[in-house]
Amino acid sequence: MSSLRSQPLQPLNSGQLNARANNITPVKSIRRPKENVQPTDQKQKKKKEKLSALCKTPPSIVRTRNGRDYRRGNFLGEGGFARCFQMKDASGQIYAAKTVAKASIKNEKTKTKLLSEIKIHKSLKHPNIVNFVDCFEDDVNVYILLEICPNQSLMELLKARKRVSEPEVRFFMVQIIGAIKYLHSRRVIHRDLKLGNIFFDPDMNLKIGDFGLASVLPSTDSRKYTICGTPNYIAPEVLGGKNTGHSFEVDIWAIGIMMYALLVGKPPFQAKDVNVIYERIKKTEYYFPEEKPISESARMLIKDLLSLNPLHRPTIDEILDYDWFKGPFPDKTREISLQETPQGLDKITTAQSSLNFKIAKDAAGIYTPGSKNPVEILRSDLHSEQPRAMLPQSLSPNDTRNKYQEVDPAHMGRPRKVNFNTNFSTAIKRLNQECFKTYQNMRRIEHAKYDEIECIPEYENPTLISKWVDYSNKYGFSYQLNNDDIGVLFNDENTLLKLHNSDRFLELIYHDNEGWTCIENSLSHPPAQAKRQLEIVDFFAKYMNSNLSKVSEIEESKETVFLRRYTRTPEYIMFEMTNGNFQFNFKDHHKICVSKEGEVITHISPSRVTETLPLILVYKNGNFISEAVPDCFGKIAVIKEAIKKKAFENA
């Protein structure tokens, strides 16, 4: 995605991004048409129900509840209930925004379905699933912000190609199956898997999107009964409605439909009349055209995937054991595939194919054990805390990140309860000022000469985040400091710090009207509401102590430090601490911390050697003294720019 940064908003690949024009799945389930409705009436009815017309074009600048602004770009497409637009943030990063008109959400059932879609998609993290970024709303629309996939969908590929080669489809199937295995391990049924809902990311990897019809099973043996989906892809048991019910096997059926469509050129049950499609599905009435030959092993797999009895279909793990996957297997999908068949697919050796197959399965998570954390839809996720708002704050991940803004460490003393920042906007302003002052000092020191500095600051090794675990899809962000204090920045917008070698712990709580409150409590007699959070802190502590190494050691420190905000990018993760320090963990395992308002800098090497120096001395020497940092000034420039960005982010 880095290639998309700082570019003007413009159409990419004819504007088809994350959603095929006129093909965004509605959040409302699709019912069987009544037999006595004439074709003309059906068209009129369908036109009447197209609620995307209620979706007003978003303003040129969409302002969110958490202070982030997005600039609207080009219109990307529309469906029955939503429209899709480009959105660009302040850094130049481009996203796709699925936009739903509030006027189209006419009852509690439709609202619950939309919030369920957001909750499910937000909780998913897999390399072959479109990444959920954020959700927010204005007075007119609800916006679901998504990773942008600029290379269209499998539907566009098939339209351009007419048919796709078996080696390419093998690779597609592994990526799709990896994503579905992950979904099913979390008890999520997609229920609308189709070529138009599977997109190519910038690297031509497939990603499943559109969770408008997705549902969570309370248990693995429970069933769903709503008749929903896209006619050509609906499994026969779905058409049975309340008489049969359906489960995970509907997604297995959809794999068979997609595989047939890619290899033959159209879905197996396709017809002009939707009722004919349904009758063919009920009888599994399809054939393999002789003029479009495919291998016998492909036919065998398709036949099993399209078994009328759901229990006769292969499981996710069994699919990849079929002989068809032993054929030529490419190492990746190339952009040329969007227009024509790549050359040399028939020349891939058996040994190379076997290796490519193994690597593809590994990348798609086929070898990953099933998730022990199924998606849960809680009642609290479906009810807004604000009278006129549509979205609960709990459903927006960026809200959580930006609520942890400001704590004055000078007030972190012994009193049981201390209030901070009674005005949250003031807290934002103070945080911006602190970032700006650090940025100014770093910039001043960069251009100063060593003998011009009147006073070299005193310095010592700072308190750092030594270990961390991002489990924000369920609980929150956990971290262990190098003084062995352990904190968790919870998803409910509060944080808890368990002090090392102490029978006390601190709760940092944010209230809209009161600002930040720090409460000190006893571990032996914790309040009831904190017991579960303490269990989670202990869970993270046990995991980190067993599996992660400390970055450095420091002498025992009496300083109490919280993590107030973190930012993850492909190049680094940035931690902003309550003591004014900024820690950057770079992807090459070198870590740099800026303290004393930018005047002091610390380097922790991959071998955990720690060195703290005045920043001016690093500029004078050209690097750190004990151990050189690769691209030292390049990293410092990245740090300076990131802090500058934070200074103006909420201005």
Automatic annotation (TrEMBL):
InterPro entries, A to Z: Kinase-like_dom_sf, POLO_box_1, POLO_box_2, POLO_box_dom, POLO_box_dom_sf, Prot_kinase_dom, Protein_kinase_ATP_BS, Ser/Thr_kinase_AS
Recorded GO CC terms: cytoplasm; kinetochore; nucleus; spindle pole; spindle pole body
Keyword Chloroplast among record annotations: no
Domain Protein kinase: start-end pairs: 70-325
PROSITE patterns xref list: POLO_BOX, PROTEIN_KINASE_ATP, PROTEIN_KINASE_DOM, PROTEIN_KINASE_ST
UniProt: ATP binding residues: 102
Transmembrane segment boundaries: none
EC number: 2.7.11.21
CDD domains (alphabetical): POLO_box_1, POLO_box_2, STKc_PLK
Region (Disordered): 1-52
Enzyme class label: transferase
Reactions catalysed, as given in the entry: L-threonyl-[protein] + ATP = O-phospho-L-threonyl-[protein] + ADP + H(+)
Keywords: ATP-binding, Kinase, Nucleotide-binding, Repeat, Serine/threonine-protein kinase, Transferase
SMART domains listed in its UniProt record: S_TKc
Record SUPFAM superfamilies: Polo-box domain, Protein kinase-like (PK-like)
The name this protein goes by in its record: Serine/threonine-protein kinase
Native organism: Candida maltosa (strain Xu316)
